Predict the structure.
Amino acid sequence: MHQRQGRKDEGGSEGRKEGGFSVWRLDDNNNEFLVRDGLTAEEAHALVREYEGRGHRQAYWVKNESGAADSVKSAAF
């Protein structure tokens, strides 16, 4: 079950609308959370790489403004 949790993001950029991309994460319970929005494609992909590099267990991906997943990334469990 995928649940979209609120619009408050985890990265402290609530309401930021500079770019058309956002970073999302999927937790162990299949809940989707907005990490940060208003990013350029480059910023969003860099943020996904940063979180993956930290060894987080959750999956991270980039969505463009249209809501389509730009790329799917998942960390090893």
